[in-house]
Design goal:
The chain is α/β, with parallel strands linked by helices. It folds into two domains: 261 residues, Rossmann fold (3-Layer(aba) Sandwich), CATH 3.40.50; 186 residues, Glycogen Phosphorylase B (Rossmann fold, 3-Layer(aba) Sandwich). The protein is built from 21 helices and 18 strands.
């Protein structure tokens, strides 16, 4: 069994902005249950410090060089469910209102990665594998291999780099290469880290890691093409024989309709017919919708962006509003989409409800109370929302892209297989046609609908299968 250090920009149970945090919160626990020693390190953000700092143990104080000055590092730790978490503290860099999106992000995460590399020396911890996640950690394999190759302790480490979303690459000016990362300029000149006249953390991670993974088999194939490769497809094709697509899971204890404290009625396959309807009625009442157990309730829990397919919905609002459905939307994002959903709610009281922002408890009740879950993404590396909806017997309606194609099997009217509905092309008419098909099955073929619901409830959305594949990856890496 291996000793593995996860390095990430965020992770549950401490902080979350997206699906990365769910993975960092769940996968280490599954790997630990398989006998691996797994530790996690992330920045100590303001929200973490405000809530947890007094529970943490200070284990080291040291410094790293940024802009040719020694910048102090304080390292804290806490163990949760047999996984040891480390936190890199620098109040100026990380105790801000949000996690990312600042002009000095290259410097901030250059500091973080340097601090992680030196952390190993400070606490005398030498993992077999460092598993880096997304752009925030992409320079670690490069920095270790280019500047620590003389040290056998570092030289023995193997690197896995996971792409959670190729669209966010960590591209910065070349000026930070030496001043913040401590790397020689020839790595820019020879193209190893060069991208668009600057440097790319993501590209560097892809090139320097021993294995590269992404979060679904289908997305692993898509990103080798110009359509989905975000201008890194040539680099990815260089590493395609080391590229693994491993679908994400979810925490099936957190997302469990039998025990979920956030939902008013609990159910499983035995009593789903009655108790899911009660969840639906409660959600309709909570959101100001007409309380009707027979009307199909469609849910959305999402960032409201072009990636998530909401421009398809904008093109077909008349058809969607005319359908015999109710619609409940939870999310925030682009102002134009938020405004349109606000207007839709005002003009369709009792039929459409929009909650602007994010509310974790309400998300649970939407997954539990809806009949159909809408996720018509332009691209989707893996997707977690469709896995949550399956867990609650809510049928996902998705576009066949990335992990959505890997996890949602479309309804087959002939052999009654499937656990949801899907359409192939990024086309608003296909979305409406598939929504109409779902309505037809719901209203006119209730036995088929109940069969699909049972298939959804019993779909394996846990980390078990995926953790087994990661296990094989680590074993292959350490041979």
């Amino acid at each position: 069994m291996a000793s593995i250090l996860f390095v990430a920009g965020e992770g549950l149970p401490f902080i979350k902005t997206g699906g990365l945090a769910d993975v960092v919160g769940s996968l280490p626990l599954s790997l630990t249950e398989r006998g691996h020693e797994v530790k996690v390190v992330m920045p100590l953000y303001k929200k973490i410090a405000d809530k947890f700092l007094d529970q943490f143990e200070l284990v080291a104080e040291y410094s790293v060089s940024i802009h040719y000055q020694e910048i102090p590092v304080r390292l804290f730790t806490q163990t949760v469910n047999n996984v040891q978490f480390y936190f890199i503290q620098h109040q100026g860099y990380f105790e801000r209102d949000t996690l990312y999106g600042y002009n000095d992000d290259g410097e901030r995460f250059g500091y973080f990665q340097k601090a992680v590399i030196e952390m190993l020396n400070q606490v005398d911890y030498w993992p077999n594998v460092i598993h880096c996640h997304d752009w925030h950690t992409g320079m670690i394999p490069c920095m270790v291999k280019e500047t620590h190759y003389h040290d056998q302790r570092y030289r023995g480490i193997r690197f896995v780099y996971t792409i959670h979303n190729l669209a966010f690459q960590g591209n910065f000016g070349v000026d930070i290469l030496d001043s913040c990362l401590g790397l020689p300029y020839h790595l820019f000149e020879n193209g190893n880290v060069r991208f668009d006249g600057g440097i790319s953390f993501m590209k560097s991670g892809i090139l320097y890691a021993d294995k590269v993974t992404t979060v679904s088999p289908n997305y692993a194939q898509e990103i080798l093409t110009e359509q989905y490769g975000e201008r890194l497809e040539a680099v990815l094709n260089m590493r395609k024989y080391d590229l693994w697509g491993i679908v994400n899971g979810i925490d099936v204890e957190l997302w469990n309709p039998k025990t979920d404290p956030e939902i008013p009625y609990h159910f499983d396959k035995v009593n789903v017919a009655t108790e899911k309807v009660n969840c639906k009625l409660a959600l309709q009442k909570e959101m100001g919708l007409t309380e009707d157990p027979n009307t199909m309730l469609v849910g959305v829990v999402s960032r409201l962006t072009i990636q998530k397919g909401f421009y398809l919905m904008m093109e077909q609002l008349d058809a969607i509003c005319a359908a015999n459905i109710q619609l409940v939307i939870l999310g925030s994002g682009e102002a134009a989409i938020e405004t349109k959903f606000t207007q839709l709610e005002e003009g369709n009281k009792g039929k459409i409800a929009f909650y602007r922002g994010y509310n974790e408890a309400l998300a649970h009740r939407i997954y539990a109370g809806c009949d159909l879950f809408l996720m018509p993404s332009l691209f989707e590396p893996c997707g977690l929302s469709q896995l949550c909806s399956l867990r609650y017997g809510t049928l996902p309606l998705v576009r066949e892209t990335g992990g959505l194609k890997d996890t949602v099997q479309p309804y087959n009217q002939y052999d009654k297989t499937g656990n949801g509905f899907s359409f192939a092309n990024y086309n608003s008419q296909e979305l409406v046609n598939t929504l109409n098909l779902a309505c037809d099955v719901y209203y006119n073929k209730p036995d088929d609908w109940n069969t699909l619901r049972d298939h959804a409830l019993t779909s394996d959305v846990s980390w078990d299968a995926s953790a087994t594949i990661y296990n094989k990856l680590y074993e292959e890496l350490l041979r």
